[in-house]
Amino acid sequence: MRNIAKINEKDRKALFQNTAAKMGLTNAIIEKDFWVCFMLDYLFHRSEWKDNIAFKGGTSLSKSYGLIERFSEDIDLILDWRVIGFTLNEPWEDRSNTKQDIFNKEANRRTEEFLKETFMPSVIADLQAELDISVNCYIEESDPQTVVFAYNRSFEDASILPVIRLEIGALAAWTPAELKPITPYAAIQYPKLFTEPTTNILTVLPKRTFWEKVTILHREAYRPENKTFPARYSRHYYDLYCMMNSSVKDDAFADIELLDKVVQFKKKFYRCPWAKYEEAKVGTMNLMPPERNLQVLKEDYEHMQNMIFGDKPDFEVILKGIEQLEKEINEI
Q1: Which of 76, 80, 257, 286 has the smallest number of CB atoms closer than 10 Å to its CB?
Q2: Mean of the per-residue pLDDT values for the chain?
Q3: Where among 153, 183, 204 does a domain terminate?
C-alpha cells in the first residue's frame, strides 16, 4: 500500500476512478477506503503501539470479514489499558458504583492525555517521514478520544466525512480476536499495482460484535422520549440484520456466555440508567425500537443508502428480521 500512497496524485487518482467505475461506487469512497486500509497497515505494523491495539466495530465487519456491504468511515480501536498505566486485572476489581464511575473517568482522562500528548505526535512524525508530506492530524473537538487523520483528498463527496476518525478507547474487551487480512478496494481490482495489496490486522471476532450490536439494540429499545437517536444509528440494525443472515449467528448462539460477558462489561464500564442491561439476556431480550422512533430510524437509513453497495434491503425488511432474531434469542 505504501507504494500507492507515494505515487503522484494523477496516477493515484486514475486508479481510484477506474476502481470506482468497476465497483459502482463513488471516487471519494474508493479513495477513503484506501486511506483507511493504509492507516490500519501503519498502525498495526509500523507504529510504536502495533502490539497494543485491536480492531473492532463496523469497519471490521466490512473489511476483515465481508459480512456487511456498507462503507464504514471510522476505525474503532481498542487500546491495551496497560499502556495508560493500569495493571492487567486492575480495571476488573470490584468497586462500588461511585468508585467505578471515578475509575472510568480516570481511565478516560488518561486515554485522552495519552492520545493528545504521546500518540498523535508520534503518528504525525511517522507519517510525515513515510509519505514525505505535511500530515494534518488532530484531536476531535467534540470527542477527545478520537484522533482525526485528514488525508490528502483528490475527490469531493458531501455524503462522506473528508477525514478518517480513529476512535480509540482503553475501556473495551480484546477477546476473542484473530489476525485477519484486509485489502483496499483498489487492490482487489488492481492487485498487480500494489507491492503490498493486503495487510493482516488483529481483529475482534464477529461473534462478539454480534452480541455488542444486540445489546446496543436492546438499549435503544428503551431510549427515553427526551433523548434523540444519534445520526446514522440505523447502521446497527442493518449490520445485525446482515450478521443474522450469516454463519455468525450460529457462532454467537453457540457462545451464549459471551453475551453475558458483553453485558457485564457494559454494566461495569458503560453504565446507562435506562438501558435495562439486566434484561439483556435469553428470555427478556428486546431488540425492537419504540414505535415513536421508527420514522426517524427509517429516514436515517435512507440517508445512508449511498454508503451501502450490493443488496439494500428495505428498512421494513430489516425490522422484520430483527423481530425474528429477538424471538430466536429469547428461545435459546
Answers
A1: 257
A2: 95
A3: 204
